[in-house]
């Protein structure tokens, strides 16, 4: 008898669909989600659609007479710009070197902080300091430290006889971009450190110790046991930071403004020049759309790799 009473609501639900209570709960859930949806539409979807639409329009505040549908003219003009290839190459160098340096330094420091050493908690707290420093503060501080006249970096290098005379690190064509990359690595590697350190906590010490007993050296234990277990964390962090770094504007603008002679100009700096200096929002939107397409392609590739991996 009791079993029939328990089965009756299920049969009614199958026959008439959701109960009134479930419908009420669903409506309340929609009401809670609605503010987030409206915020997303106002802050993300609308600007994104506007940028895509403007990329196909002639929109130059310095030449109001030129307006209307442009088709692919903005994209063509951007790609054939004399500084586009240089900015594209600088973006690749900036992104690859930054992410590679952050990962390697983060991995080394994570392994060091995972060891049982005295004061480990203090070191773990200190290492996060560069990451919490605002980009503008970090950029200006390093700019002052690297100046040839009174910068402490040049002073130390000269006193240690590493350099014969001070070097204008941010003012030379060959060193400007690499110097900003170095500063970016210094600021961002703690994020990799904390994430990889969390991943190391999940690595079974029993397996590592068993491998050591079987005769596996430090190198083999690292490459065949520890590193494979950090693969998911590593790929996720690298993917996120490739996007963050490629679209980063603040650091380079604060330290070099893309100079000297466009030697450190990246695509985000180029977008800023189009929009805020030339007031050509059509070209700025076109270049931003190209970068958006690249980011979406990266996401699709990463997603397909993840799905393929989970199916195995």
Automatic annotation (TrEMBL):
It is a multi-pass membrane protein. Belongs to the binding-protein-dependent transport system permease family. It is found in: Cell membrane. It comes from the Bacteria. GO terms for cellular component: plasma membrane. The keyword Transport applies. The keyword Cell inner membrane does not apply. Residues 88-302 form the ABC transmembrane type-1 domain. SUPFAM superfamilies: MetI-like. The chain crosses the membrane at residues 28-53, 92-113, 125-147, 167-186, 222-247, 284-305. One of its GO terms (biological process) is transmembrane transport. This is Carbohydrate ABC transporter membrane protein 1 (CUT1 family). It comes from Paenibacillus cellulosilyticus. Keywords: Cell membrane, Membrane, Transmembrane, Transmembrane helix, Transport. Pfam families: BPD_transp_1 (PF00528).
């Amino acid at each position: 008898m009791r079993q029939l009473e328990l089965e009756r609501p299920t049969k009614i639900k199958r026959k008439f669909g959701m109960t009134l209570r479930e419908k009420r709960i669903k409506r309340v859930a929609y009401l809670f989600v609605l503010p987030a949806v409206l915020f997303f539409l106002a802050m993300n979807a609308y600007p994104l659609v506007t940028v895509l639409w403007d990329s196909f329009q002639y929109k130059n505040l310095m030449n109001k007479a030129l307006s209307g549908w442009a088709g692919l003219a903005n994209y063509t003009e951007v790609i054939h710009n004399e500084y586009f290839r240089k900015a594209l190459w600088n973006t690749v160098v900036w992104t690859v070197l930054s992410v590679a340096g952050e990962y390697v330094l983060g991995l080394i420091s994570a392994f060091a902080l995972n060891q049982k050493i005295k004061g480990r908690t203090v070191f773990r707290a200190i290492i996060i300091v560069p990451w919490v420093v605002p980009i503008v503060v970090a950029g200006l501080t390093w700019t002052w430290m690297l100046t040839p006249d009174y910068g402490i970096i040049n002073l130390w290098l000269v006193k240690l006889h590493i350099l014969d005379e001070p070097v204008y690190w941010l003012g030379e064509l060959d060193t400007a971009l690499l110097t900003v990359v170095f500063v970016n690595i210094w600021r961002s590697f703690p994020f990799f450190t904390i994430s990889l350190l969390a991943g190391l906590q999940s690595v079974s010490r029993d397996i590592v110790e068993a491998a050591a007993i079987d005769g596996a050296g430090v190198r083999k234990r690292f490459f065949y046991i520890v590193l494979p277990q950090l693969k998911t964390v590593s790929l996720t962090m690298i993917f996120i930071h490739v996007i963050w770094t490629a679209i980063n504007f603040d650091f380079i603008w604060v330290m070099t403004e893309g100079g000297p002679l466009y030697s450190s100009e990246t695509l985000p700096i180029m977008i800023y020049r189009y929009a805020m200096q030339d007031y050509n929002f059509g070209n700025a939107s076109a270049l931003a759309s190209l970068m958006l397409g690249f980011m979406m392609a990266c996401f699709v590739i990463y997603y397909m790799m993840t799905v393929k991996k989970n199916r195995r």
